[in-house]
Amino acid sequence: MLKFKNITFTYDDKNRNALENVNLDVNKGEWIALVGHNGSGKSTLAKLLVGLIQPSHGEIWLENMLLNDSTVWDFRKRIGIVFQNPDNQFVGTTVEDDVAFGLENAGIERDEMLKRVKESIDKVGMQNYLKHEPHQLSGGQKQRVAIAGVLALEPDVIILDEERIKAK
Length: 168
Ligand SMILES: Nc1ncnc2c1ncn2[C@@H]1O[C@H](COP(=O)(O)OP(=O)(O)OP(=O)(O)O)[C@@H](O)[C@H]1O
Ligand SMILES: [Mg+2]
Prior knowledge:
Layout (H helix, E strand, L loop, with lengths): L1 E8 L9 E8 L15 H8 L7 E6 L2 E2 L5 H7 E4 L12 H11 L4 H14 L15 H14 L4 E4 L8
Parallel strand pairs: 5-6
Antiparallel strand pairs: 1-2, 1-3, 3-4
Helix pairs in contact: 3-4, 3-5, 4-5
Bound molecules: adenosine-5'-triphosphate and magnesium ion.
């Protein structure tokens, strides 16, 4: 389903590779947990996957599609990401509007949209917060809403970039 092939990436202002020759294969239906210390490159891998940054070397494949300028929007359509800090991800003024936004953007018709909004918010257990402002929720509740927004879009691949665990 997903293939990282010899991926190397260096941030412009760094003289050290953030990722070096990474190879990863993920099969359809598989759940993978990537574990690594702070700064080991987990979020960088997620950013590469949706073309927010481009690898210095290597290829990224989604089934038989190579990631490049002409396929990046197809990648983004098929991959949902909940970033580490969902605050930057909210666009709606209420929980239900926020989840609906992505669907409206994707041109999903109204009845289907309302159904998906309800179902995905139920799935994450936020049905009592429909009219709440995303920014006024707790950290975990924000993550639930961000997850609902991604679930509603029914992507083929979901990336959950977990909240940072602060080292003492
Ligand atoms: N925008 C950026 N510009 C320059 N360097 C960056 C940038 N983002 C991350 N880095 C560097 O790249 C390396 C990998 O960072 P990344 O965010 O991918 O780590 P991570 O595994 O997600 O860490 P964490 O567990 O803390 O979330 C780190 O050394 C970090 O300092
Ligand atoms: Mg990270």
